[in-house]
Design the sequence.
């Protein structure tokens, strides 16, 4: 079974020729992180040039990661919620240029932030993601909602079911589940089932969100991938190195695991 592999890349790094060569050389597509600053300054002619450079280099698959700092699609403040939709829609608007397989967005739920009242988040998040799914439909792309501070998978599963759009799927992040949930990581894979469209691959030691190369922390990614596969999903696998020198170790570690799968 073949797997599509991406790696997180902040958009500004794509302006550097060696970044594109590095990705193409490893057969890895970028998950392009579009910060708020990038979206504010990015000109469409430059976006078209970068997209063409990636295609010319042989990069055939990529994804986006939308802004998440100060972006709260489940905000109680209606003005803040509208801002989140506008900001996320800016990322979606670039989809016709780059043709991403999908766009990762944070769900934004935290038990502590919402005082253990998920309904307050859910009512706003359902509206936001309903609007965003419609925008994604027009742009011919998909949204992958990522677990971050979520302690259980239930809220994001419920959100996806309530929105009811084929454009809305889930991004499973085992690293975050390890840190913020008391449930076994394989439980998340089983709960998400076929809804997992993309999976983030980064390791940690159970204390901090270290974003270590796979195999350098305590997460059993071989077991996680088997659970994901057994649950009926075949997601894009996105490496998330936070240091450029970690990239080759991330790729090598993931490939060792994939080669060991039956």
Sequence:
């Amino acid at each position: 079974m073949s797997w599509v592999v991406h790696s997180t890349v902040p958009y500004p790094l794509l302006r550097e020729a060696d970044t594109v060569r590095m990705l193409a050389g490893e057969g890895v597509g970028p998950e392009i992180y579009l910060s708020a600053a990038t979206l504010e300054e990015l000109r469409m002619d430059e976006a078209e040039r970068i997209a063409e450079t990636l295609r010319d280099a042989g990069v055939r698959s990529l994804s986006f990661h939308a802004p998440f700092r100060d972006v709260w699609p489940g905000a109680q403040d209606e003005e803040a919620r509208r801002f989140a939709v506008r900001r996320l829609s800016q990322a979606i608007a670039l989809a016709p240029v780059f043709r991403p397989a999908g766009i990762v967005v944070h769900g934004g739920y935290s038990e502590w932030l919402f005082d253990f009242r998920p309904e307050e988040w859910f009512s706003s998040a359902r509206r936001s993601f309903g609007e965003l799914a419609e925008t994604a439909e027009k742009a011919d792309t998909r949204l992958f909602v990522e677990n971050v501070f979520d302690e259980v998978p239930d809220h994001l599963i419920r959100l996806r079911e309530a929105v009811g759009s084929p454009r809305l799927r889930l991004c499973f992040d085992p690293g975050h589940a390890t840190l913020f949930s008391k449930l076994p990581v394989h439980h998340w894979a089983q709960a998400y089932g076929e809804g997992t469209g993309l999976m983030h691959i980064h390791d940690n030691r159970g204390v901090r969100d270290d974003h270590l190369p796979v195999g350098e922390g305590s997460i059993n990614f071989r077991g996680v991938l088997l659970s994901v596969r057994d649950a009926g999903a075949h997601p894009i696998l996105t490496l998330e190195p936070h240091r450029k020198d970690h990239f080759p170790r991330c790729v090598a570690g993931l490939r060792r695991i994939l080669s060991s799968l039956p």
